[in-house]
Amino acid sequence: MSQIRPILEALARDELLDITDSLELSVPDRRRKALLVEAIEGVRFDLREVLLGFSRDRLKELCRMLGLDDSGREKAVLVERLMGEGGGQAAAVDEAPPSSGRRERARANGNGGQMEIAFGETLTTEKLERHLWSAADILRGSIDSADYKNYIFGLLFLKRLSDRFEEETEALRNVPGADPEDPDEHDFFVPKKARWREIQKTATGF
Rounded CA gap, 40 and 50, in Å? Predict the structure, then answer.
């Protein structure tokens, strides 16, 4: 079985017909998926370009059908995952328990979430971004990616505000007569319970 066959078998008949038409292939019975797959598999073509023409939701669906991690928002990342890990793993979707989740899928994909860089290879911005997005998808768990920003942006704002408050507090300690806990001494006053150090002490679920 070729590397692309599991991907082709996961495609719908209409999608296979579009490929055969674009390649101008002759198929004895266009109603049979198996014949379409065999005809396409027998010629050289760029499956990556075909997949990039699919919607992001469709690519995610294909990843799930092939037992692959469907996290990430970039189509190129999903296509790379399909092309690099799709071959020979079509049965994995039936073996994984329904509650496996993103963390388990990430472990099953081979590197346990670690970024692999070959000796002498330069870490590109694109590869780093893909790794960070993958990490963010694991951390967000069941939260929808569209809603994830509502949590992250709030945390980033609070962290930056808390850092700025600490900087002002340190500076005020060197000013005679100044009270670091006086709200009037700060541009933005952060109550003690809302400061990052206090939040770290009470955070749970990590």
Answer: 12
